[in-house]
Amino acid sequence: MLALSAGRIVSVPALIEELWGDRPPMSVRTTLQTYILQLRRLIDSALPAGAPTRAKDVLVTRFDGYLLDVAAEDVDVWVYEQLVDAGNQAIERGDYEAASRHLGRALDQWQGHALADVRVGMPLSIEVARLEESRLIALDNRIGAEIRLGRHNSVLSELTVLTAKHPMHENLCAHHMVSLYRAGRQSQALEVFRNLRQTLNRELGVEPSVRLQKLQRAVLRSELDLEAPPPVRRMRAEAVPAAVVPGAGRDEETSGVPIGQPAGTGHLMTRMGGNGWQR
Known about the structure:
3 strands; 279 residues; 2 domains; mainly alpha; Arc Repressor Mutant, subunit A; Serine Threonine Protein Phosphatase 5, Tetratricopeptide repeat; 10 helices
């Protein structure tokens, strides 16, 4: 929790809620101070011998709270979010090469599930859910950028796994359909749609969105506008955030929304712990 809020004060009540929920021990503040002392000992043991910085300078006491005073780039979730922002900005500029690169580097920060080795309370469980959703959106956007660049063959195996894990995620299914169609596997693209429809009917009692149905008809009719787009011209060179050192479900059912493009706009936390078709 302190690492997620690096550079910001985490209040004592927030720490108590995370550690004990609504059942804190009688001497809760004394117990928390003991935990902080243990943390500082661990930090001291990790610091280089003779370093001028001590644990109290890293894990700082503030009024009714504590602050982890470390550089933002030392927290991998910060690096991840900076790279995601850079990727999303590249998508907005139409620079899909840069988007693919930034989002790929962002996803490389992950080493499993968020906070995989941490026993989380309610506050952190909400943060874990946010990060996992952010990861899925970044994956969706990165794959959309790859398809925009005509790299449908390179994402097919990844999409096979992702659509199996997320069988009701329409964007991923759309990416899979477009990639299969462009790879000359029209019947398999239609099978992806059939599986999506059956799953939605069985689990939710609904049909795929209008745009997925349009995509299915386009595949069925071998629409020419599903063919691979020409190579995307590289836009101007983008600026990578200086501090980043090299190192979505059902969509709006509106007509004319492209499919096969980015969706928009573990342990992950700290080192410790083209366009598919368009009318």
